[in-house]
Amino acid sequence: MFRQKTNNPVGFTLIEILMVAAIIGVMLAVIIPRAFRAQVDTKYSIVRQTAAELGQWGMTWAQRNLEAQSETVTCKLNNYAAKLVGYTGDPSAADNYWAIKNAGVGNQGPDLGCPSGPGARAGMSAEAIMPEDKKPKNPFNGVDYFIAPNDGSAVSAGVLYLVVVQDPPLSGPMNYYFIYLGTDSTSVTSWTAGMGSGVTPTISQARNGVFMARLAQ
Questions:
Q1: Cis ω before 149 (30° cut-off from 0)
Q2: Phi, psi angles (nearest 5°) of residue 199
Q3: φ, ψ of residue 171 in degrees (nearest 5)
Q4: Are 56 and 178 within 8 A, CB to CB?
């Protein structure tokens, strides 16, 4: 008796393998960019949440200094808040109160320039009143927000800058907003998400950032 040969090949053909590879390639081309975008969006959310928390600490710092000033000092809450304007990580700035680390400054920052004249100074930095476990880090570079590379010396997504905009101009309250760099930023003052460029955005541009306070002069 003769056994009839069957023509049933084992495994996949080259065409089938190529088709599967092409399908996987298309799926990866769709999934990977979306996953990366989702990761970036999550980091932006963390930046905004961190800015809101820093705003609360900043106002706590300003209020504490206001309550601690001597009777001869006539500074207002706005005078203290104004000294937080700038990059949170720039301790080299002459009037930086987020983190006072200048040589020779010690525990006293520069003169606030209030109507009372010389002698109106903040007794600590905003960083100094924060518990160690509350000190935030930039999710894009993993570095403490109070040190480099979050000092505005180089383009780095997530870097925060506090601006103050008077609205209406010349006569209205002072509006404080955090604006920040993004993955699309091309310079250290090229803010993301419609926040403008430079350190003097319009009030409509600043409102794309994170609100900290609205204070009378």
A1: yes
A2: -105, 15
A3: -130, -20
A4: no
- 94-120 exposure pattern, b = at least 16 Cβ within 10 A, e = fewer: ebbbbbbeeeeeeeebbebebeeeeeb
For 38, which DSSP code? H
Cβ(108)–Cβ(123) below 8 Å: yes
Q: How far is CA 205 from its chain centroid? A: 16
Question: From first to last of its 217 residues, what are the pLDDT tens digits of the chain?
Answer: 555 555 555 667 878 777 877 777 777 777 766 666 788 999 999 999 999 999 999 999 999 988 888 788 888 999 999 989 999 998 666 567 898 764 344 445 666 777 665 557 777 788 989 998 888 999 999 999 998 889 999 999 999 999 999 999 989 999 999 999 999 999 999 999 999 999 999 999 999 999 999 999 8
DSSP label of 105: T
- The two counts, helices (H) then strands (E), for the chain are 3, 4
119: left (phi over 0), alpha (psi -120 to 50) or beta: left
Please answer whether residues 201 and 187 qualify as being in contact, where contact means their C-beta atoms are separated by less than 8 angstroms.
Answer: no
| Token pair for 180 | 């920040």
121: phi then psi, degrees, rounded to nearest 5: -135, 150
